[in-house]
Amino acid sequence: MKKKSLRDLPPQALDGKRALTRVDFNVPIKNGKITDDTRLRASLPTIKYLRDKGARVVLLSHLGRPKGGPDPQFSLKQIVPEFEKLLGAPVEFIPDPANGAATTRRMPRGGVALVENTRFWPGEEKNDPDLAKTFATLGDLYVNDAFGSAHRAHSSTEAVAHLLKPAVSGFLMERELEYLGQLLENPKRPFIAVLGGAKISGKIDVIRSLLPKVDELLIGGAMACTFFRALGLEVGDSLVEPDRLDLARDLLATSGKKLILPRGAVIAPSLERAKDSKPVSADSIPKGWAVFDIDEPTQHDFRARLVRARTIFWNGPMGVFETPPFDAGTRAIANALVEAGKKGAVTVVGGGDSVAAVAGMEDKLTHVSTGGGASLEFLEGKELPGVAALEDK
Ligand code: ADP
Ligand code: MG
Fold first, then answer.
1. Using one digit for the tens of pLDDT, what is the confidence trace for 214-241?
2. Is-contact 278 264, C-beta < 8 A?
3. What CA–CA distance (Å, rounded) separates 392 from 388?
4. What angle do helix axes 328-342 and 296-306 make, rounded to 10 degrees?
5. CA 236 – ligand 1 centroid, Å
6. What's this model's pTM, rounded to 2 decimal places?
7. By the 8 A CB rule, do 285 and 291 touch?
8. Which residue among 37, 128, 146, 388 sits deepest, i.e. has the most Cβ atoms within 10 Å of its Cβ?
9. Burial degree of 101 (CB within 10 A; 0-12, 13-18, 19+)
């Protein structure tokens, strides 16, 4: 079921109203300084739209993982000056949601307030209805723009959505649902998924969910080594999950034609001995060596397939991309996505490390999901509580 977005609301639903807006201000902070303000910037279109329509914007977010109550290290107050600069307007800080309602009512149309870290209150992560009631005193309607937190049923993402009407998605959330939803619903074909990263175990549900939907599933990363072993090949000291060998065999038996494994690998005796690295074919990995990347023939093979695709989803690097030269395979895939995109393919990247691997290329890709765990759960076909709680279109 499609969810209502901010765009679907008539102007009178916003003018003068207090829009309680769940954002993701979980930014990295070092010595009190924000080291990456991407998430603050990403929230601006939704906030600007609300202000333009005469709403009073009350922002809710978590920051980090505070344990056992308020902790200045995790206070959202420290991000106010930076956020004011980005917004170009003053931001009122509400230290305690339990007595913030008066402040939100006093705010002018277009005013913006930020509530202290939702995780300072013990009920948040238990989806406590009383804490949700407290949050609900701060708004007249609810907007959720924090897709990355939508896989968790918390008071600020789930319970509160049932207490305010309308409850709709913001623009970031809308975009995530649109592009990730398109992958599951009616992808333009051929639809190719590229999966890599360290482990099969964390991705198995995504593999199972995507396999019936894709035309091809290209496998890279250490994950490929578990498949190599399942085929009876020697993989040396490569990262393998012995307890997933049966699973890998099962997948090869049932979906063998769709699963495309690397032709070869770039190997080294260890990560530290990267300078001794060399390419080998998949059936010639010697004992005492380990796979750290896909080789060039595989890059060419994967590229040739990807540039014919009309929809591509990519999660998980092809190698240990943090340590050159083992970033080459991952870079080749990133470039192949850009090339396919130029030919009209829809290109979607999701995950933590995969998103880091395409940093700076975002404008050449259709959609880079910042959802992390939430995007994977969505693609597994699971219902995300923070999405389910929003109104249907
Ligand atoms: P994402 O965060 O995008 O979902 P993962 O966390 O699943 O991706 O995987 C990323 C990690 O996988 C990276 O740290 C990378 O170094 C590691 N990795 C990829 N290929 C290999 C390999 N051949 N051997 C060991 N680690 C690998
Ligand atoms: Mg990761």
1. 999 999 999 999 999 999 999 999 999 9
2. no
3. 9
4. 20
5. 18
6. 0.91
7. yes
8. 146
9. middle
